[in-house]
Design a protein that fits this description.
Mean pLDDT: 83
CATH superfamily of the domain at 166-272: Trypsin-like serine proteases
Distance between the termini: 134 Å
Radius of gyration: 35 Å
Strand content: 25-35%
Strand order of the largest sheet: 5-4-1-2-3-7-6
CATH class of the domain at 166-272: Mainly Beta
CATH topology of the domain at 166-272: Thrombin, subunit H
CATH architecture of the domain at 166-272: Beta Barrel
Length: about 375
């Protein structure tokens, strides 16, 4: 009996040891039961829905706006020298026939009727303009009107089922807000870049007569001119128009014309064939210490008036040389460019309040602006 028990215990020990060896080195030999202990449960992330963008993505804004952003190709015929046919001219200077020139830019479809906003410098002097849509459709464009003072132009194409961008508002835009720039830089094809608003109300840059730029660090390069600056919802905030660059490429300083200015120019050109701006007939200057002492002015901020056109709108309202204009229609004025822009935005024939500082007195004068005269061209 004792020998049987000893034999049983030894057999059980050997079998148990063998089980652990097999379970450790060759678990597959144990069949499904052992494999069940090695099963690892995995959870796969659900596939992103086309209508839902990942967190932090600007996909939906880009998709919404990019369909309405177009590429603009321009061409100019070769310009022959006036004396190109003179044999003696050809002998000394050779054939000066010139070569055709081509240009590249961008634009934004703002109306289902085919109106497109772009920069004046993109289409200026062009003999032919071709618009290429994001869906690869092409059409010849006609220039409806231009406004060199703001560097804007309105084109029109004849196509059906045009995508139209949604107009936004730059009034609530602040430094640090995220924006996207859409255009065709260097002709590589439509490109979307992102950045933030770096500054608002940039002026005195010497780019346009009327300047109130949105500054952004979103990459803007040659070919982006006339393209869209949009918010993270895909709404139009401005028209990209210029960059600051020493190399010709992006350096993180780009400028866009606010959509409010673009809308005003577009409405004027489409409805009246021209842009009508306010004008009051004054000679404004930056408020310097020397001018303030000369006119005995105590004002610290505003634009000093050094000349007033006789019988002009400002003169009839009572504005005099030496007055400092500190505000127009309830908005402060701190520079000559701001004064020009705010006066230009006034409706001719409708009186608006001007905050005026005259020596120690603060006045509010009602000024009825006239129509800004067109600049005289120099005699050729």
């Amino acid at each position: 009996m004792k020998q049987l028990w000893l034999l049983f215990s030894q057999t059980a020990t050997i079998l148990l040891a063998g089980y652990f060896v097999v379970a450790t080195l060759q678990p597959d030999w144990l069949g499904k039961s052992a494999a069940a202990h090695r099963t690892v449960t995995t959870v796969e992330a659900p596939a992103a829905s086309p209508g839902n963008a990942p967190a932090g993505s600007f996909r939906l804004a880009a998709q919404k706006a990019s369909a309405a952003v177009v590429s603009i190709n321009t061409s100019k015929a070769a310009r022959r020298h006036p004396r190109a046919d003179d044999p003696w001219f050809k002998f000394f200077f050779g054939d000066q026939g010139g070569e055709p020139q081509s240009g590249l830019g961008s634009g934004v479809i703002v109306s289902g009727d085919g109106y497109i906003l772009t920069n004046n410098h993109v289409v200026e002097g062009a003999d032919a303009i071709e618009v290429v849509l994001n869906d690869s459709r092409r059409a010849r464009a006609k220039v409806i009107g231009t406004d060199p003072d703001t560097d804007l132009a309105i084109l029109k194409i004849e196509l059906d089922k045009l995508p139209v961008i949604t107009m936004g508002s730059a009034e609530a835009l602040q430094v640090g807000d995220q924006v996207l720039a859409i255009g065709n830089p260097f002709g590589v094809g439509q490109t979307v870049t992102s950045g933030i608003v770096s500054a608002m109300g940039r002026n005195q840059l010497g780019i346009n007569t009327f300047e109130d730029f949105i500054q952004t660090d979103a990459a803007i390069n040659p070919g982006n001119s006339g393209g869209a600056l949009v918010d993270t919802s895909g709404n139009l905030l401005g028209i990209n128009t210029a960059i600051y660059s020493r190399s010709g490429g992006n350096m993180g300083i780009g400028f866009a014309i606010p959509v409010s200015t673009a809308r005003m120019v577009m409405d004027g050109i489409v409805k009246d064939g021209q842009v009508t701006r306010g004008w009051i007939g004054v000679e404004p200057n930056e408020l310097s210490t020397e001018l303030a002492e000369t006119f005995g002015v105590k004002a610290k901020q505003g634009v000093i008036i050094t000349g007033v056109l006789q019988n002009g709108p400002a003169a009839r309202a009572g504005i005099r040389p030496g007055d400092v204009i500190a505000g127009v229609a309830g908005k402060p004025v701190t520079s000559v460019s701001e004064l020009l822009s705010k006066v230009a935005a006034l409706k001719p024939g409708t009186a608006s309040p001007f905050a005026v500082i005259r020596r120690d007195d603060q006045l509010t004068l009602q000024v009825t602006p006239g129509v800004r005269p067109k600049p005289r061209r120099l005699a050729q």
